[in-house]
């Protein structure tokens, strides 16, 4: 295994403080994968924001927006564990290449399906579901690979940078996608996304990834090994409880952003103004994620997570109370900042003591919570909005975040004052 690791990061002299984003970025393989993923994710976020806007423009229904998002992200909840098993069992580069090609091809098909002015809704959902299936397998494998491309002391910097590229793409992708959508329609956006997969494909063809660590588990045990880890490790368990609860009950505002923009802020979903709103949210997320690997690199991630949850609750309530677009662009930057500071610090807490042999399977559970529950929370949020109000939905999300901050304990089990997970 040492030989494999030596091909991934060279024992170069440490020019930067370990654990910082700059230190992680000095490792060549990590840097190459990082830049390829960044380019590809720009296309993905072009497609994501336009899909939501298209769903709302076609139907005016918050529920259908939730259905489309469920088709896109719902497979993460069902198939991520399979992706985690693949990450720890098979040639990761080959599997990632295959899944990248699959998603590119179905993005081309989506472009064809949405060419008519009134596209078939059922066919749209079916194609998006196929793209979501590929992403559900891809995401946990990629999430398991990124941390092992740097030495363990640089783990927090690598996680911070990976969050930055995910969210920088939220700025660039929606901004570009909304302009293209407004001028020539959604099909061109989906076609460009298909082309963008060429970036990650070219990157994967250039690098060598470490072999999966050998483990003794087989069959079903191999599939559910991550659950066993969560059962036996208090910190892992509480991180996963947090991400599932937070994503399901506090994040429906993301799925319902077209509805909020239209009803509260007088912003048309199919407009450059909506793209700018989403881009501001992404800008805040970049700032929040980058802060974990820079300003707060030496801070307690457990403490930052709890404080971030409180900050998120406050900013979510402020955003939900706005009825004018001008302040919304400023507030949503702050909301995005605390949101992804929470996600990045929580992910660091989860991964800092994980064994590489089970990393893929545990990260599959993380992906299930982080991505898989969001669309179903969005569906619930759409249903809740139609029976109460947007403000009520936002209030529930804020209260849940405050509850998690008050009840969860993310301190390492080795801390004398930490309470161990029962069992």
- How much helix is in the residues? over 70%
How can the largest sheet be summarized?
A: none
* Terminal Cα span: 33 Å
Percentage of β-strand residues = under 5%
The succession of helices and strands, N to C, reads HHHHHHHHHHHHHHHHHH
Structural class: mainly alpha
CATH architecture: Up-down Bundle
Name the CATH class: Mainly Alpha
Helical element count? 18
C-alpha Rg (nearest Å) = 20 Å
Task: List the uncertain runs.
Answer: 1-13, 415-423
Shape: globular
Number of strands: 0
Q: Determine the CATH superfamily.
A: MFS general substrate transporter like domains
Domain tally: 1
CATH topology: Growth Hormone, Chain: A
Topology diagram in text:
Elements: H1 2-6, H2 21-25, H3 28-59, H4 62-73, H5 75-87, H6 92-113, H7 121-145, H8 155-184, H9 186-206, H10 219-232, H11 234-249, H12 252-255, H13 257-265, H14 272-293, H15 301-321, H16 325-351, H17 356-387, H18 390-407
Kindly describe this structure.
The protein has a single domain (20-407), classed as Up-down Bundle (Growth Hormone, Chain: A). The protein is 78% helix and 0% strand. The protein is built from 18 helices and no strands. It is globular, with a radius of gyration of 20 Å.
Task: Considering the chains and any ligands shown, give keywords for the structure.
Growth Hormone, Chain: A, 18 helices, mainly alpha, disordered N terminus, globular, 423 residues, disordered C terminus
């Amino acid at each position: 295994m040492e030989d494999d690791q030596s091909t991934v990061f060279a024992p170069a002299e440490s020019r930067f403080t370990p654990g910082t984003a700059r230190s992680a970025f000095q490792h060549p393989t990590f840097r190459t994968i990082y830049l390829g993923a960044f380019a590809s994710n720009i296309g993905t976020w072009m497609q994501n924001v336009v899909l939501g806007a298209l769903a709302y423009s076609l139907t005016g229904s918050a529920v259908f927006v939730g259905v489309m998002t469920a088709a896109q992200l719902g497979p993460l909840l069902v198939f991520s564990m399979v992706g985690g098993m693949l990450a720890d069992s098979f040639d990761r580069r080959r599997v990632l290449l295959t899944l990248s090609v699959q998603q590119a091809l179905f993005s081309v098909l989506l472009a064809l399906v949405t060419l008519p002015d009134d596209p078939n809704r059922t066919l749209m959902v079916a194609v998006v579901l196929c793209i979501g299936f590929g992403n559900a397998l891809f995401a946990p494998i990629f999430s398991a690979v990124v941390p092992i491309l740097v030495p363990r002391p640089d783990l927090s910097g690598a996680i911070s940078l990976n969050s930055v590229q995910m969210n920088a793409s939220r700025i660039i992708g929606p901004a570009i996608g909304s302009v293209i959508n407004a001028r020539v329609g959604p099909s061109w956006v989906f076609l460009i996304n298909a082309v963008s997969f060429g970036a990650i494909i070219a990157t994967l063809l250039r690098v060598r990834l470490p072999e999966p660590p050998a483990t003794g588990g087989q069959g079903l045990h191999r599939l559910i090994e991550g659950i066993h880890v969560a059962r036996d490790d208090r910190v892992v368990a509480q991180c996963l409880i947090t991400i599932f609860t937070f994503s399901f009950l506090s994040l429906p505002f993301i799925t319902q952003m077209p509805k909020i923009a239209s009803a509260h802020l007088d912003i048309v979903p199919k407009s450059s103004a909506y793209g700018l709103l989403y881009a501001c949210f992404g800008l805040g997320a970049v700032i929040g994620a980058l802060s974990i690997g820079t300003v707060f690199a030496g801070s307690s991630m457990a403490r930052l997570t709890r404080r971030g949850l409180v900050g998120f609750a406050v900013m979510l309530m402020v955003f939900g109370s706005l009825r004018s677009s001008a302040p919304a662009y400023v507030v949503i930057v702050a909301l995005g900042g605390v949101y992804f500071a929470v996600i990045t610090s929580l992910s660091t807490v989860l991964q800092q003591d994980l064994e590489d042999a089970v990393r893929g399977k545990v990260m599959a559970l993380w992906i299930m919570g982080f991505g898989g529950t969001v669309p179903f929370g969005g569906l619930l949020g759409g249903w809740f909005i139609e029976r109460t109000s947007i403000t009520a939905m936002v209030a529930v999300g804020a209260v849940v975040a405050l509850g998690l901050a008050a009840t969860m304990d993310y301190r390492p089990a080795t801390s004398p004052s930490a309470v161990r997970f029962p069992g």
